[in-house]
Request: fold
Amino acid sequence: MSTTRQIENDFFKSALAKGATVSSVPLILEWIKSKSSAMKTRIEPIPLERMRSWRFDEASGDIVHESGRFFSIEGIRVETDWGLVSRWEQPIINQPEIGYLGIIAKKIDGILHFLMQAKIEPGNINRVQLAPTIQATKSNCTRVHQGKVPLFLEYFNGERPVTIRVNQLQSEQGARFLRKRNCNMIVEVPEKEPLPVPDDFIWATLGQLKELIRHDNVVNMDTRTVLSGIPFGSYVGHAGESGPAAEHAGDHDRHFLRSLLDPENHLHDLDRIISWITGLKMRYHLRVTRLPLREIKGWEYNGGSIRHQDGKYFSVIGVDVEIGNREVQQWTQPMIQPMQEGIMAFIVKPIGGVYHFLVQAKLEAGNFDVLELAPTVQCLTGNYRTGKNEYAVPFIDAVLGAKKERIGYSALQSEEGGRFYQEQNRNMIIEAEPGFPIAVPDNYCWMTLNQLSTFIKFNNYLNIAARSLIAAVSF
Amino acid sequence: MSTTRQIENDFFKSALAKGATVSSVPLILEWIKSKSSAMKTRIEPIPLERMRSWRFDEASGDIVHESGRFFSIEGIRVETDWGLVSRWEQPIINQPEIGYLGIIAKKIDGILHFLMQAKIEPGNINRVQLAPTIQATKSNCTRVHQGKVPLFLEYFNGERPVTIRVNQLQSEQGARFLRKRNCNMIVEVPEKEPLPVPDDFIWATLGQLKELIRHDNVVNMDTRTVLSGIPFGSYVGHAGESGPAAEHAGDHDRHFLRSLLDPENHLHDLDRIISWITGLKMRYHLRVTRLPLREIKGWEYNGGSIRHQDGKYFSVIGVDVEIGNREVQQWTQPMIQPMQEGIMAFIVKPIGGVYHFLVQAKLEAGNFDVLELAPTVQCLTGNYRTGKNEYAVPFIDAVLGAKKERIGYSALQSEEGGRFYQEQNRNMIIEAEPGFPIAVPDNYCWMTLNQLSTFIKFNNYLNIAARSLIAAVSF
Reply:
């Protein structure tokens, strides 16, 4: 009755297709570059009070749009017994509306291709990055509001018949967004159905996209989170040493392949991992209280932006944006500007012949359910550089001091360019030195890719940093 | 590396052990009856204002304990586009502290037995019901508060070495509790470890417990929810027609066995079901706002209790409790009294040779994440009797009009007796007539037991009514 196997094989085949199909990786890189240089942009920071259509709410000091739509910047107080800081206050983005991140997939010459968009966002490094076919809000999709309808909307709102391949609710950055989630979708249109490709769109295989993720700031965060949710299934007895998959894969990659496809061999079974998560959710509490933005302690409005008093974490700034060629769009908006470059890294290690990822259970203020599964090291705030005890980061030395041959993946990746101003974080996958201990602290746990892929399916288990890294794993 | 198979076989073996082991089903029933008649109790409804240690908060009218502990009765306003009523107000129980529901398991003569407690609760029908080894709050377990420590606490708080078999966060009644969750645990102690069994405790196999659930109001709700989370695993190619499991099972039960153990055959695969849930979570919104209890519309304080103006749904009453033999405990507390008996029923149907359960995605006000998976029919409020259009209940006729030979399970089961006053609901599993359509409305979906068991593992997918029914499935 089920056709799971077929679907998963299609994704799998596409992941192995790295060479030239409709296009090729060098051509796609060229194409993005040409899109970027053809685009006229002027994006400059301005004092918050000079924004048009945005204002400080009189009662609270929150930054709100005059229409009451889009998003707002509000304040929260966080109280928790997790970590070394038990109480703090901070600005946070409140965007109640769920976003749709959707990619159209279609077989071309028998191989699934994904329709990617060259998209410019005001916060982007490199200006143009590869985005999903559509990035829209719920009200865009249901046409509640008048206004320009996004291209290809009809493939995602039920108007055109498609096969839904992926449809998951996934979290955004818990340190920056209050309980925000997006709907991550991949829909497949029939091979025979003509699908005209507009100027700013291009077909790519999954293998090509994974190659492109190895480049700095080419594939945007929205694409990476959608790709991380692709199910490859489990192939008992098929994975690993032989078969067509293994033939295509290098030595490193073959390890990942087995870790992805083998549901049987792992250090801890799924029930034990769920028990570990339950124990931590029971042990720690997270209490988040809304505060008027103007009342939060430790932050000051200074020189047109809201900054932490020690210059740490991030600032809330205004930007003035002018984008376009023939049609020029102009607007202003608040954005989050990070104070340093962060790092997110998985340490991996073969255990019993299968690659395991060292996963951290991490509490973040905006989390939907207290804790999410995060990379081994995740510091978005650059605190790891200070070396102060308050922010001692476990395993940071193993990441920063990794020998070159142990670095399986390292690239700078942007956060979502619609909210974050030129924020890039170092993404890394590091193979642990042979002596690296299997015993780890309480809030860490070794898992295979197969297990991580299972958790991704269910809401709010893997955080966006972990998903961004998993999207980069190629085989 | 993993010993999942072994663990699951232990549970499985215990589920097949229905005959006399340490005890037997008739003996356990006798024992409960004797416990019940030996217990002196006086439990009577009193006007809310005559409760001791509880008071109406001056500002809000909320019902609170003078210590600020335990729970409170507050008001909420619910706004949603799900169902036919788009806005209502109601009282709700707010109990921020997570409860522990824990059962000790131990092999006796090679078969896992569960240590059950004969427990009296003020709301219980039959006075004494079979409860988990321990029902405690987080502060009991961490000994934050002084006071009597629950028996066997040391097996659940890490003081004694045990093997954790089940440890899941599970939701309570979403129509009555505000986002309340309990930690459901099963811990195993080594076969050789002596474990003295106090007077009010008894060992039972899983098979015996499932037999006992077929009796009215014998196994309490806390036990049923813990048992529903037991993992039996998947046995590709093993399930169904032959093998030791099938030998022990009747014709009906063998179908359930295959539905439980076969991960390969189903109408919709897991990714498709998740996509269906995601779609519904995106489509519907749920907005819950706290209100002072005295301000909620449609409810009135009348004759010592808080009642709906039409006498519907439930009332908030006070009870005066006196329980005990040698040591007599006396207290008063608010409770929820239902206005009618409700019904919760799964319709099942063999599809492609495998039993499928017709699952409803149901929005309830107190849900943690908008929707949870519920039985085909779930009306706790007796509205199905009125036949009014406002509360038209899909599939109610197929349940109420089921022929006797199609009723696989039917028993009256109590809600949690610590909060709900003599609330019992008819629990049923009905085999659909052969012509019952496979096509179902948008918010219904056919799933196998194997799929339901997978969803149970992850937080907040199956609601407590669905779990109560799944605990009753025997094989």
User: Anything to note?
Assistant: Residues 3-42+97-250 of chain B form a domain with the Nucleoside Triphosphate Pyrophosphohydrolase fold (CATH 3.90.79.40). The longest helix of chain B spans residues 25-38. The longest strand of chain B covers residues 99-108. The mean pLDDT of chain B is 89.
